[in-house]
Amino acid sequence: MDRRKFTVRGVVQGVGFRPFVFNLACRCALAGWVLNDAGGVEIEVEGPAERLEEFARRLVEEAPPLARIQDVRAEDVPARGESGFEILLSQDERERYTLIPPDIATCADCRRELFDPADRRYRYPFINCTHCGPRFTIVRRIPYDRPYTTMHVFALCPDCAREYGDPADRRFHAQPNACPVCGPRVRLLDHDYQPVESDDPIREAAERLKQGQTVAIKGMGGFHLACSALSAEAVLALRGRKRRIQKPFAVMVRDLDAARALCEVSSEEAQLLESYAAPIVLLRKREDCPVAEAVAPNLEEIGLMLPYTPLHHLLLEAAGGALVMTSGNFSEEPIAYREAIDRKTLVTLSDALLVHDRDIHMRCDDSVARVWAGREQLIRRSRGYTPLPVTLSVRASKPILACGALLKNTFCLAKDGQYLLSHHIGDLENLETLESFESGIKHFESLFRCQPEAIVCDLHPDYLSTRYGEQRAETDGIPLLQLQHHKAHIAACLADNNCFEPVIGVAWDGLGYGEDGKIWGGEFFAGEPASLERVGHLAEAPQPGGDAATHEPWRMALAHLYSLYGSHWRDRLEGGVERWSARPIEVVESMLAQGLNVPVTTSIGRLFDAVAALALDIEAITYEGEAAIYLEAASRRAVDLDKFYPVDVRWQGERFELSLEALFEAILRDLDSDVAAGEIGYRFHHGLARAILGGCEGLRERRGLPAVALSGGVFQNTLLLDLVVPLLEAAGFRVLTHSQVPANDGGIALGQAVWAASQQSK
Ligand SMILES: [Zn+2]
Ligand SMILES: [Zn+2]
User: Fold this and answer.
1) How far is CA 496 from the centre of its chain?
2) Ligand 2 mean position, distance from CA 525 (Å)
């Protein structure tokens, strides 16, 4: 008899790993034990050598579907002559950390039981098992065991306790296990917060939704506001309450068939919709899509998701159709998740509330994804993905906290080769979001037993994330590093590809604070990942009124015209003065003439604004990137696909600038000849793609770099990707794009963390 000890690291808790080990040990007729400890799973097995070998092989090969094994260590230990195999209680060891699984959509077995009248959990809205259910959002601390989750207040009934203790059962050690006898319950509350008498609160809520009401629904990681997506009236009422004017809402439908009735769904998209992460997937609307235009104004796409909790399944079954499911909050605030604290907000936002008594410990917004070129591309990485780590070859020798940027903030904790990118925090522009950021960091630090020994943040002195980083570094007496915004984008893209060779980095977005104190956003870098050098950028343009120009695209159009033609711009733009007559044209002109309150920018986002203002007549916008999104949608309708506007790559020594005179000349000519807006938009996109190619080819000649990394929010624009990636590849470049980490500012924290880790190793 031999005895061997295995230590398994990775996502191995809360995924049915111990029962799997138990069953495997029994099948191999081995004695011993298994336990969860704070470092993962520990196993000791005893038996003949060949059966130990078999066990070791099958441990990895047959691991449960949700497990992600990163490392298995085996060592021989003295045999003890044990018989039988046991699952031992968890051990709590201070020094170690383990990985917590994300929240997982209801599995097929649980869905079957949910609708089976003979099952004891028939229509029970909290059914779950070791393969599905809440995880990240209910964990209060580690190890991942029931007493340390928000389920600790529910004592298991004898039936549930039997399942929980039976290694042959699908609910063996399923921490959120519950049933109608012993588990959480739903209630429907009226607008005045009084309970509504009903045998079936979910059906009653569905009835109200059918009548056009807005119902706040407590979900996995927070409250949704739901209303019928087929009723323009209901959707507009919700927009009014939430103070969200145009930004698209997500929609939930019952199943894949219902999704196909609204949108075109490819097989990859179907897979993503039905994946255990169950993100919102951006899909192209069908011609006959019955969803109200107000759900996603002016867009060809809508974000669809499928039910991912049993409560959702029951609700959608009763309500039918399609429901808007948007985060329960006022626009710009973090998602509400605590009934008691957020009560006032929720009552103001809805006509009724469907609530329950399973607490959410950590808020977590829905993730947003799309399929591009057959590949999943995350736009918001949150529920269903967080807190899975990004595992990289660059190791943090000391723990690092990266604070992220301003908009779409996430933070990142790095330890060894594990990068724990947080859930979506939001735009760090108010106190509520700042609190969510700070409490999120605290939770991650305790969950992963990680005390940062270095902080990294953005260069922008005014970002709340930068200020937090500065204060934290001072309080803790640890070093503070700062990384320029667009360099962090490129680092994030390299991390997303786990490829850290010298590259050309193209970082295009709305704005980031530049190393020269100017607003950057159309940047080219080259060199080693750890020491990128700015080698090219968009020509500087005035941004009249600074921030005001980001909300009013017409200002950028006027700025470009004024730079090119001075006060003669009025002669060049037919109807220009009339089209902006309600705007303070003279004020902005005099700002431009005198250079007062006119910072300069190299932002591509602002260039998109200018072109959208000219082509689509957009004067003002209500959410970040709105004008560019409309321009992309319009450009998709273009038919003349060979045309493009000229953008000159102007070299000065080893650096270049993309100059825009010829581009605007061409746009004005097309406007004069009444070329359709979509054609103008397309020629603009195509021109930019060729400009990227031109810049990269010039850099390759000078520096011999064969790979290009594309990052920044502008590269969520799939038309631009569709145009530029084939151009670069045809020219022989290896192109790195984003997939598991957002190209937008949601990926910045990962870029900061991996860069800081590479500085440590220098
Ligand atoms: Zn299940
Ligand atoms: Zn029970």
Assistant:
1) 13
2) 59
